Amino acid sequence: MKRVYLDNAATTNCSNEVLNEMLPVFNAVYGNSNSLHTFGREASAIVDRARDRVANAIGAKSNEIYFTSSGTEANNWAIKGVARANRAKGNHIIVSKIEHDSVLESCKVLEQEGFEVTYLKVDQNGLVSLADLMHNIRKDTILISIMAVNNEVGTIQNIKAIAKTAHENGIVFHTDAVSAIGSVKIDVEDMEIDVMSMSAHKIYGPKGCGALYIKNGVECSNLIDGGTQERGRRGGTLNVPAIAGFGKAIEIAMRDIIVNQQKIKTIRDYFVRQISQRIQYIRVNGHPYQKVQGIINIGFEMVDAESLLMMLDLEGIEVSTGSACTSGVAQKSHVLTAMGIPEEYVKGAIRFSFGKNISKEDIDYTIDKLVEIVGKLRAISPVTKTGRAK
Amino acid sequence: MYSERILEIFKNPTNAGGLQGSQGIGKYIDEATGDYYKIYLKLDETETIIDAHFKTMGSVGAIVASSALCSELVNLTIEDAKEVNEETIVKVTGEYPEDKKQTLTYAINALKSAIEEYYIQKEKAEKNGETLFAKAKPQKEKVEKKTTKKTVETNTEENNNEKQVSKAKANFDAMFEAWND
Q1: A380 touches chain B (CB under 8 A)
Q2: Nearest-Cα residue of chain B relative to residue A358
Q3: Which domain holds residue B165?
Q4: What average pLDDT does range B169-173 have in this prediction?
Q5: CA pair distance A352, B92, nearest whole angstrom
Q6: Burial (CB count <10 Å: 0-12, 13-18, 19+), residue A55
Q7: Searching chain B, which residue's CA lies closest to the CA of residue A379?
Q8: ipTM of this predicted complex?
Q9: DSSP bridge partners of B40
Q10: Which of A360, A274, A362, A182 lies closest to B178, judged by CA?
C-alpha cells in the first residue's frame, strides 16, 4: 500500500546526512563526554561542535546553549526555572492559551507553588494581541512566554514586538520555538529573546534531544540536579549521538530553509486550492498569511476528526488531529477552542504537515482519497451542513 | 488503540445510512464530544426487527459500536431488543479501548430512544385506527440503490470541477518542474 506521511509537525524522519553524522558516535566515539580521559574528550569535542552549530543557527553564543532530552524538558526548565529563580522579584507569569501542554502544565505546577498565571486569549487567527499583553503586565510580572509558531495551526507570533514589550517592563521573555526552527529564521539577539526551547526531531534530527537557549545573565534555576554536565546546570550523561545529530540537523535546516520553504509553500498552496475546489464546507484554521508553510489545519464540517484520521490511515495517509502529544486523548483542541473556531469545525479538524520530501504524486493521492473519505463519512453522518439532524 | 477487528468493521461498516419506512428512529448526542448517534428500526407485524440502520458522526468507536449494534438487532423482537446492551456489541467487536467504552453506552442510548419512538408511533397509529406495518419487506436493496444514486450525484458534481482541477494540476506540474530545475 502507498504510504504518505503528512505529520511532519509531530516528527520528521532522521535524514541520511544527520544519520551519517550520528552513526560513528554510537560505537567509535562512545566515551562519556564528562570523562577526563581521551575517549571522554573526543565525545566532549563532538558535543562542543554541536553546541557551536546550534548557537550559530540562532545567533547565540555557544555557552548559552544547554542540551536537554526534548523540547518538553526545555519548556519545563524554562518556565519553572525562570519563575523560581526570579521569585524574589514577583510571582506573576503571562502565557498564551495556545501554548504547548509542556508550558501550560508547568504553569499549573507553579500555580500550586503560589505563582499567579495569566493565560492570554488569542484572536481567530491564533495571534496574541500586543495591547492585551500590555494590559495584563503587572509590577510583579517576572516571565512572559509566548510560542514562536503554534504547532497545530502554524500561526507565527509577533515575537520581536512581544519581547520588546517584556523588556520595557523588565520582564524575562521565553519562547517555545520547537515548531519554528527550520521554518522561520530566528536570531535571538535581533529578536531580543532571553530563553528559547528547541527540539531536534522536528527538523530531520533524532528523537530524544532538545536544547534550551538561556541568554547569559538571565537567571534560571536548575530543573535536573545531580551532575556537573552542561556546566552544572543540567545533570545527566549527555546523549552524544543525538546531540551530534541535532547539531547537524539544525545546520542543514538553516542552510536549506529558503529552498525547503519555497517547495513546501508550492505544495501547500496546491493542496489547499484543490481541497477547497473539491470539498465543500471546510474551514482553513490559522492565520491567512502569517504562518509557517508546512502546517495547514482544516476543519471538515459534518465529520469527526478521529474517524477521518483513521480512514486516511487505512489508506496509508498519516495525518494528525492536533498535537501528537495529546491526540491519543479524546478531547477538543485547546488551541482551536481558544481561537474561537466554531464547534462544527473543531470536531472535524485535521492537521496536515508537509515535509521537504513530499512528492506531487503523494499530494494527488492524498487529495483523491480525502475527497472520497470525506464523502463516505458525510454519507453516514446524521448532521447536515447547517448543523441540524437530517 | 483500536484492535484490528474494530478497524476492520470501521473500514467496512454494515447497515450504514438511513432506512426508509422505519417505524422507530432514535438519537443520542453526547454534549461533551459532539458525537451524534442515530438508529433506524424497521419492524414487521410480529414486532420483529427486520432491518436496522445507523447514521453516526463520531469516533471510530462510535461508528463501529453503531454498526455492530445494528447487525445484532436484526431478527430480534422489540422486547428482545430492550435486553441488548454494551456486552452484546462487544461480542461482535471484541474488547473496546478503555477510553472509548462510553461510545458503546451512547449507541445503546440511541437504541433505547428508537424503541421509545417506536412505541409512541405505534400508540399514535392505533389511536387513529392505522397500522405501522405496510407490507413490511426488507428494504436493503432500495437503500443500496439510493446510496448508488448519491454516489452518482457526487460524481457528477466532481465532474463539473474536473476542468478546474486538471488546470490546477497542470499548473502545479509546471511549478514543480520549474522547482526541480
Answers
A1: yes
A2: B176
A3: 139-181
A4: 61
A5: 34
A6: buried
A7: B17
A8: 0.86
A9: B25, B53
A10: A360
